[in-house]
Amino acid sequence: MGFFAATLLGAEGVAEIELSYQDTVLDVFTAGPGVPSVSISSPGPGDNYASGSVPVRWSASDPDGDPLTITIEYSADNGSSWLPVGYGEGNNGTVNLSAAILAGSSQARLRLTVSDGFQSTVTISSAFTVANQPPVAYIGSPDDTVDYLEGELVRLSGGAWDAETLDFDPIGLRWSSSRDGELGYGAVLDALLSVGTHQLTLEATNAAGLSDLASITVTIRGDYDGDGVADEDEFGLGLNPLLLHDAWSDADGDNLPFLMEARWGTDPDVADTSGSGRSDAEDIAAGLDPLDRDFTLPLDALSVAPTSVQLFHDRTLGTLNPHSRLQIASRSGAQWTVSSNRDWLIPLRSAGTTPDTISVTAVSDGLPNGVHQATLSFSSASGNVEIPVVLTVRGSSVPIENFIFQDRFQTNLGRLFDRTMLGVQKEEFGSLRN
Question: pTM value?
Fold first, then answer.
């Protein structure tokens, strides 16, 4: 059993929809011949809304008793353009629209469309007034109540949604700190804040001069010597907040400096915190957990990205055969080979050592228009990977002189790749000409 949803565009004259699977009819949807109707009782002519919500009340009916849905659209230009703003169900109901999402207008109108799923009716309200609304400000980063160390740049990012323009000019975004005062303007700003707790505020002001505020709190912890350990923590760890070098000391001789021991949570006075028989630094270098002696890595495996390739070639354009580049990786260096099960799909190298990259090209000469499928098979001691490749071809082949031009272009492209040190051998591109 499963769930799915589908939206179908109505065609005139359709009176029944049948849902079937293969030869089995699962359900049938019908509506009576009657056309539904709807009227609007709110907002009324000349109503004025300064803030809060705009109540949208309707009364609808269907001669056949079919269930009804209501789509609500808003216009701030007396019906010249419309924007979807709400949805309702039933013969009678109310939807409260936030005035904050409606552009200010003295000629505002609502358009309601009532539908029984097959037939629909539209009605438009009388003109009413919505006052200009302030924007809605938001802060994307940093998160609220996060800590930074002294000297760290704090990246501020935020914005505002404005019903008047459905966009917002970053010049109207002003950042400030309760400790450091004004910080600057824009959607993104890097700030160097003083030690202490700051209430950071983003004030968004739109073209109508209306504003909204968003605020968060961050704390900057003192780090006088700039060693990455907060001053208050250095005392508890037996370090000197005035000395930089002590955070890089290695009391237990495991080649892991004190600063890294603190970040990993390992014991700075014991070389092998977990008792695994390896030093803390050796565990970390091997990708193991230095706090868990029984932690083991999963078996190494070959990986290739992307996991599938889509290629397209319009031969009427006389362009190069389509290419794609794949990344090949494993945790440790592994010898790999690759083969293609179709002559038209050509790897530009057949072997290598991870980590590595490889280009493949699809030669559409002689292929009919349509969709062609192939598989690249990668093999190594770390496992095997198959990458499906789909090539879509259309258009007739171009004249032979265009292929000659293409051949020369490919040669120049190979030289360009050599000069820019992209790691592709010139002879790989030469294989395209053979």
Answer: 0.57
